[in-house]
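Q: what sequence does this backbone want?
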């Protein structure tokens, strides 16, 4: 592609595409990608980048997988799409369901398929409310979510998202959604300066349920490890305590495994780390390594039984045209086969250790306050003052500056505040991880030096 053609494309993009989380100033000098192979992306100028976030946490098996293109082509040639509404089904979605139920915790029984993580969460919220409605407790409808959560961009998924910028300008939001503090040991209001987590954050959820009245609370929704909110792994005691609290008050637990599902943390699903079973699990992203969109929610046997035995006068009226899309399901099956053949879940754990070793070296830098991660998802938090953990003022724009400095050096990532986020493809090599860490150190040095 010559420069004139590239410039024309860039100008048309800037003039006509409204990108997610948009502000025109942020879109200047946008990278236009043209191809990808493994953990490497190439832009229209031929510049190469390590895809430090698996694009959007999703290209888990890496770019350029012809096996997945072939699986899609085969299914498209045979049956690209067919109606999956009640009364109809297709072969790949039945096979995929069998596969997924073999991977998730054994209490799970039924799957609904959608297209995006947001839809999966919206519909999971409908599922828990519907469950209580069928159980004769329609007043159990409130949903508790946590600060720093990201659950998506549709209306209910936004209502459970715990970051202020996602709410600005979109009100009024639907009623019945409550937010509580999360488990963020480095910046915890209860235990940041104590040697270990006090689990006050979990107990605060209990207090919230009691304050609201357990008879009014349908579910708690949470990511096993926060993703977009800063890659924040919880204390190991957090999820078991949360499960106990939900059981005590008859409140359902929705685990949003949209990022953490399918190996990201070194387990098929992250809740395995703590031996916890949710009542509903949502998934998306890595189920197809993003080659085509697919998402869904999985419900426990008791919720599934309620749906199976629902009255004809109150059918479970959720749906989307592309539910159980045969091509998406065929690609997911082939993708999971790659996971098996190449031991990608085990690889995530092993490469996660390399990433953690690299980050431990960064922690020696004067402005690196905290490094954290689980498997192949991690964050490096840069601070103005290490001793007091004082953050930089948002107006300093440290996060965007770090992301740009890394991009110039050939590593693509994102920042939440001043935390640089990593979630590379599970096929990343040790050398590529070392390069990412070296680039991170150089970028931090450059941005800190530019402050004078
Ligand atoms: C944890 C989590 N849940 C839900 C979503 C929403 O998924 P989607 O963007 O596919 O709607 C995301 C997206 O990044 C996510 O990280």
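A:
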């Amino acid at each position: 592609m010559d420069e004139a053609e590239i410039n024309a494309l860039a100008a048309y993009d800037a003039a006509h595409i409204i990108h997610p989380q948009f502000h025109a100033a942020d879109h200047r000098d946008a990278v236009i990608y043209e191809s990808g192979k493994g953990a490497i992306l190439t832009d229209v100028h031929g510049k190469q980048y390590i895809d430090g976030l698996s694009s959007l946490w999703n290209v888990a098996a890496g770019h350029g997988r012809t096996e997945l293109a072939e699986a899609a082509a085969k299914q498209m040639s045979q049956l690209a799409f067919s109606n999956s509404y009640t009364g109809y089904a297709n072969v790949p979605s039945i096979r995929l369901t069998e596969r997924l139920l073999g991977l998730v915790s054994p209490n799970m029984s039924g799957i609904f398929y959608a297209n995006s993580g947001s839809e999966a969460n919206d519909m999971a919220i409908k599922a828990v409310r519907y469950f209580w409605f069928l159980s004769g407790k329609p007043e159990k409808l409130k949903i508790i979510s946590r600060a720093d959560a990201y659950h998506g961009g549709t209306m209910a998924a936004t209502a459970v998202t715990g970051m202020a910028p996602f709410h600005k300008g979109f009100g009024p939001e639907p009623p019945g959604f409550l937010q509580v503090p999360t488990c963020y040991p480095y910046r915890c209001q209860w235990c940041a300066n104590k040697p270990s987590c006090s689990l006050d954050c979990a107990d605060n959820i209990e207090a919230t349920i009691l304050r609201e009245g357990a008879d009014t609370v349908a579910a708690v929704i949470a990511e096993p490890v926060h993703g977009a909110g800063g890659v924040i792994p919880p204390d190991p005691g957090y999820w078991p305590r949360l499960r106990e609290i939900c059981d005590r008050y008859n409140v359902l637990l929705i685990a949003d495994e949209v990022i953490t599902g399918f190996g990201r943390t070194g387990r098929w699903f992250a809740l395995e780390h703590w031996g916890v079973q949710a009542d509903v699990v949502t998934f998306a992203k890595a189920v197809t390594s993003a080659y085509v969109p697919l998402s869904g929610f999985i419900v426990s046997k008791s919720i599934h039984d309620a749906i199976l035995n629902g009255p004809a006068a109150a059918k479970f009226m959720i749906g989307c045209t592309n539910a159980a899309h045969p091509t998406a399901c065929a690609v997911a099956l082939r993708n999971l086969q790659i996971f098996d053949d190449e031991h990608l879940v085990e690889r995530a754990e092993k490469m996660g250790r390399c990433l953690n070793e690299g980050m431990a070296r960064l922690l020696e830098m004067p402005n690196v306050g905290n490094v954290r991660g689980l498997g192949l998802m991690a964050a490096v938090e840069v601070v103005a003052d290490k001793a007091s953990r004082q953050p930089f003022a948002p107006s300093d724009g440290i996060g965007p500056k770090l992301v740009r400095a890394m991009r110039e050096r050939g590593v693509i990532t994102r920042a939440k505040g001043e935390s640089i986020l990593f979630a590379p493809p599970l096929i990343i090599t040790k050398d590529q991880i070392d390069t990412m860490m070296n680039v991170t150190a150089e970028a931090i040095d450059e941005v800190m030096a530019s402050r004078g």
